[in-house]
Amino acid sequence: MTETAIPAAKSGPRISGAFHRLLAFSGLIALVVVFSLASPNFMQTQNVLAILQATSVNGVLAIAATLVIITGGIDLSVGTLMTFCAVITGVVLTNLGLPLPLGILASILAGTFCGLVSGTIIAKLKVPPFIATLGMMLILKGLSLVISGTKPIYFNDTPGFNQIALGSAVGSVFPAVPVPNGVLVLFLVAGLAAFVLSKTALGRYTFALGSNEEAVRLSGVNVDRWKIAVYAVAGSICGVAGLLIASRLNSAQPALGQGYELDAIAAVVIGGTSLSGGRGTVVGTLIGALIISVLANGLRILSVAQEWQTVVTGCIIILAVYADILRRRTL
Amino acid sequence: MLTRRTLLGAISALALLTAGGAASAQENYDIALISKGFQHQFWQAVKAGADKAAAELGVTVTFEGPESETQVDRQMDMLAAALSRNPDAIGFAALDSQAATPLLQQAKDAGIPVIAFDSGVDSDIPLTTATTDNVAAAALAADKMAELIGGEGKVAVVAHDQTSRTGIDRVDGFVNRIKENYPNIEVVSVQYGGGDQLQSTEITKSILLANPDLKGIFGANEGSAIGVANGKTELGSNIVVIGFDSGAAQKGMITSGVMNGAITQNPVGIGYETVAAAVKALKGEKLEPVIDTGFYYYDAATMADPEIAAVLYD
User: Fold this and answer.
1) Which residue of A300, A307, A308, A310 is the best one to mutate when testing the B interface, meaning the one whose CB has the most B CBs within 10 A?
2) Structural domains in chain A?
3) Residues B168, B199: one domain?
4) Which of A2, A74, A98, A258 has the greatest number of C-beta atoms within 10 Å?
């Protein structure tokens, strides 16, 4: 998972790799230290688990967004696609009464399919990613409301469903650290995405598309096909996020989702992935997502007024990205 | 932790006794309020009431809510962080009761009393609910509507949603009162605009175009009511409009006559009673299962009355 640094980018000598990531971590560590010193309630097990739980959905969405952003594209539909997948799961499990594995499969397939559609619109119809996924964002928001009849779909008939996010496999072995399953899912998705990026052809083309799409095309590669594949994989990851949020709320909330893409993109950017493409890591995105939730949680623990929480978060986003720029300049 | 709190409670009770009930002897309780919203003027009025109670009772209150009333998971994150802070009591207005159940159970297990406010929580964990009797409030709107249209004709309702407790209660309260008491009035349409002004405007226009002989529309929350009034203005109609809640825009419409009047809840009272109930719970006093925070009908003539002006917000 730590081997996801850009293969051929101008990242200096190999030794600096570890140093790089150490610095990327430093912002997060600094926040944790500050909050721990400021409040004894911050480092309690229960609170650390609450932070991880709060990171799980945004983290998974941010990983989906990372893949797309590395290709030089953008995906504004991750939030509402997540909701759409949750609603599909609700239809399959509650309205149709089918067994749990089919619900899980349906969510991931729905995500993959929508990603395929976005990718095809972008690659074949040459609609800019910003516009194509903006359209998809609205289409999926509307479809979620239509399919659900604007009402939440509850999973009361599928008792095991909320265990996907809220249960704790770790806790059943080590009762002292009941890490919610949703957090394991986040790390699993992160591990898989990091593997795909660093070890597979899809990963290599993801970076290549973002660095110089024309060069890839001229070397005889079927650019469209790889691009569509990246959006489809991102879509399937949104399907996982849909399962996580539906499981956590024990319901598919059809009106939720818009605005979540901005938090996901913020996590990606804080994590050092370049919005112009060709450069980025999954580990960085994970750290970015953690910074966002540590900040939100810590400010709440300190009873900071909500209007000021927003101001501080904005400042930290700019600082984090500026620190990343400085770091790259000095190395 | 529990024993420490009980001990502190006992000490402060003792201090209260010896000091002859001096307010300064009270423990500085930390009360976390998790609301359904934050920026909206209604929630700011609830916050103002909570702050007022905090100042009077000598306790510390924090007030938080998600950016939009759809963000159920963000509200859960807020509730989880509030629990980690280990407050003395929690005030909670649930966006989705079911989603909140695990965290409320956690609060109960930790011995933190929970007070529900606004639309309540479908759970037996909250000790009480500080809320408007929305059924009775909407029934009052129906009475006023009947009075203003002369007891007969067609009316309609534009409400915010069919899932929340307030949405259900206000529509039922209005429709049932009309059915029971006014046989010559017919509710021809009940539509939902998500509390969004623009959407409610479009809905209103379509209702007016479909029913040219319509006499009046009840807008069941602030956004719906403003939308109804805007729709009326855009089509140059002269129907009776009764709104809900206040806010600068709605008050302006009532002053100018576009809207005949509105029901106001007492958001300041909701915030105040929530904090007051939390303090009572912490002192071990008994609480009623529901605290009715009250409502009023107001129009251009009564808007400046001190009793009304005190509960209206901009």
Assistant:
1) A300
2) 41-325 (1.10.3470)
3) yes
4) A74
